[in-house]
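Quick one, T. Sequence first:
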Amino acid sequence: MGLVRRARSRRVAAALVVACLSALAVPLSAQTSELPEARDADAIRAILRDQYDALLALDATRYASHLREDAVWENALGDRHVGRDSIRAFNARVAATMQGARYDEWSARVSFLDQDVAVADVVTTLRGQNIAGRRLVDRPMLNVYVLRRDTDRWRIAHTRIRDQWVVRYADEVRDSLR
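C-alpha cells:
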C-alpha cells in the first residue's frame, strides 16, 4: 500500500508541476506581438522609423503627419517648436541638411506609462549630414519621444533631439537653418 500511495503522490506532484509550468508558459508565449502592448510597441516603432525615413526623403509633410496637432519639438541647441505646422516648417529647413545622409544602427525601446502614453528612446548613428556646405562628423544620437494614443492611432506629442555634438557648432547650425 505504501508503494501505491507514493506512486499516486508522485503522479499528483507531477500533475501539479505540469499545471504550474503550463500556467507559466502562457505569459511567456504571450510576450510576442500577440499582446496589445507589443502590437502598440511595434506600431510606435513603425511610426518613428517612418518619421526618420521621411526626413531623409526630404518630406517634411510626411514627417509632420506623425505629430499631434499640439506637438512640441526640442533639440540640443534649445530650439523649441510648438504645433505641427511650426515643426513641419522647421523640419523643411532641416531636411535640406539631410540630403545624402542616413541613419545606421537604428533601434527604438518603447515603454508604456499607461495604455495611452508611451515613451520611446531611439538610438541611432547619423552619417553624412551637411550644414552650410560642410559635412558634419558621423555621430551617435539618442532621441526621446513621448507618444499619445489618439482615437485612431499613436501620434508623437513631444520630441527631444539629443545631438550633443551639434552644440559645439551651434552658431553655424542656427545660421544654416534660418
